Amino acid sequence: MSKLQTPTAQGESPEWITYDRWGTVLPNKKKFAAKIGPEEFGDVLKEHGGPGAEEEFASLMKRMEPLSNAAQALTSIALREDAGAILTLLRYPRELLDTLKQGQALNNPFKLIMEEMNIKDEFLKNWLDMLCFLLQGLPAAGTMNAVMAYMLADWYRPGVTLDFPKGGSGEIAQALVRGVEKFEKSQVRVNSHVDQILVEGGRAAGVKLKDGSIVRAKRAVISNADPFVTKRLLRAAREAGETSEELNKYMEQMTNTDDSDGGIPNLKSFIHIHAGIDARGLPGVPSADFPAQWAVVRDWDAPEGVESPRNIVLCSMPSLIDSSLAPEGKHVLHAYVPATEPYEWWSEMDRGSDEYKKKKDEAADFLWSAIEEYVPDARNRAVPGTVQIGTPLTHERFLRRTLGAYGPRVEAGKNNLPGHNTPMDGLLLCGDYTFPGIGVPATAASGAITANNLVSVQQHWAMLDKIRLPERK
Asked: According to the model, what pLDDT value does residue 366 have?
């Protein structure tokens, strides 16, 4: 539901609604919905942490300050992957210097900082582990300092709020469509499934759609599909001998999930529930007693920690923030497990079988139990015909996600994601299997960097003139 603070292009952005609380249900059933920012988190540490929790957190924040300044200094919109980057980055000399000063420290695992600061409080350690996981799909041992430095500075600064797009997340997609279609002859084509990437003379020349039609590429083909899908789209060209050995090896490496052989494993998948419910007797706006979104943690000591299957559930009721998202007298809600559902639990099932339906019902029951931490009779309020259950097979089928995976499991200090250019002229890749990685802000940045690679430095510079950056202190 939320977005991190990012540069904003003029003209196409949706209207944003702000809110400032995020709820948590702990394994002991205690719950709170403190405001984000520093004002109320101290109270959370007093109630749920030990006697040294506040002091440890304050020391950690002080230690992270130079890293936070560096992580927030440069905008990813200034990045490109050619010599022109010297000019676009030098546009921000102070910010570039702040980033370079920290160097490798930004890429190191956050766990090393926690150990350096001798964080001992169990609640604080668990809380930081959870934040790492919700940001990057990994606990503190695998999450880069840069990610946590940015998040801690943004989440716990005075007066901070979260933003929600008025009209729902579909408005973000519509804003992107407007950004494309404002240019003459530019269009967004939906329900146009790509069958293969066409290669002519050793370069990507366009795509062939499943209906047989062809879209020619004047400059480049950019694939934001996962690399397993992109590799399949290149299969015909490869079998015809139209791809180079260098590209073939590149795609083999990108789809290598064996970490003992230099590959990057996939993260797990999801289960989701979407539903409309009767709102009679329920609040119409969020509060400390009834937040618009909350996390439910079942067991801090689960075998795989925060990565354990069905251990953490994220729930949201966006109609508390924007009442236009549901009919009068109703609310919409969503709950899911964040990349912890093993694909193997579902992989051999027939989606039309009774076995699959039963397993979906079991998943729904589990998700309803998390929703009911704040809405005790939620499943009894469900509006007939509105309940939808998503599984790893749903992710695989509708989102074209291989094995339903959330993305690559990139561990700080161990793995590195590739850039966006490939060994084939005219073929670029973007998305969460490329730098900077998973999550909406990172994948948006990957798309921007890829676009920057295709424009001149002068065009890139003109775009930088149009964006608005957060003010530096």
From this structure: 97
Give the pair of three-digit tokens for residue 135: 């940001």
Mean pLDDT by runs of 10 across the 473 residues of the chain is 39 83 96 91 95 96 93 90 95 90 91 97 97 92 93 89 92 92 91 96 97 95 97 97 97 96 95 98 95 97 95 97 96 97 96 96 97 96 97 95 95 92 98 93 94 96 83 54
Reported as half-sphere exposure (CB side, CA atoms, 13 A), residue 328 has a value of 0
User: What's this model's pTM, rounded to 2 decimal places?
Assistant: 0.91
Query: Tokens 């003139």 appear where?
Result: 465
- The pLDDT, as a whole number, for residue 292 is 97
pLDDT for 5 equals 37
Whether the bond between 158 and the residue before it is cis, its omega within 30 degrees of 0, is: no
Cα angle 445-446-452, degrees, rounded to a multiple of 5: 85
- Residues 110, 143: contact at Cβ < 8 Å? yes
Per DSSP (E only), the strands in 100-168 are 162-165
The two structure tokens encoding residue 223: 């694939």
Question: Distance between CA 126 and CA 145 in Å, rounded?
Answer: 17
Residue 24: alpha-carbon gap to chain centroid: 20
Q: What is the CA radius of gyration of the chain?
A: 23
Query: Residue 444 has what DSSP assignment?
Result: H
Pairing mode, strands 221-223 and 388-390: unpaired
Predicted local distance difference test score (pLDDT) of residue 7? 40
What is the CB neighbour count within 10 angstroms for residue 218? Answer: 7
DSSP single-letter state for residue 80 = -
* Residue 227 Cα to chain centre, angstroms: 17
Contacts of 218 (CB under 8 A, 6+ apart): none
With CA atoms as reference, report the closest residue to 326 among 366, 381, 289, 377: 381
Q: Before 392, cis peptide (omega within 30)? A: no
At 344 the three-state DSSP class reads helix
Q: Taking a C-beta distance cutoff of 8 angstroms, is the pair 114, 417 a contact? A: no
Sign for the pseudo-dihedral over CA of 347, 352, 355, 361:
positive
Amino acid in the structure at residue 228: F
Q: Please state, in angstroms and as integers, the Cα–Cα distance from residue 138 to each residue in 43, 133, 293, 305, 352, following that order.
A: 27, 4, 21, 10, 33
DSSP label at residue 288: S
